[in-house]
């Protein structure tokens, strides 16, 4: 098994829902979908797993503080404050905070309700 698939369990992550919007009444064909915004805080040494995809759950992430390492396709990429990334149907990844300070991100995505 490759290291990419041996992802440590999620630990040290706090997720706070900031707001959400039911998209059904807003956009035709979006019944049962919700646009949500979350604040994600990752303590030093935190892991946000497991390895997961974003099929039917597109989103974007923006880093407010610290550095988050995004693991995709066997490549680890560090993102710091003021930078973000898209999460589309081709995204399969997991995240970690290798730094010594909490990493904080804003995550916005579209999810199935319920």
Automatic annotation (TrEMBL):
Residues 39-108 form the Cupin type-2 domain. It comes from the Bacteria. Gene3D superfamilies: Jelly Rolls (2.60.120.10). It holds the Pfam family Cupin_2. This is Cupin. It comes from Aeromonas lusitana.
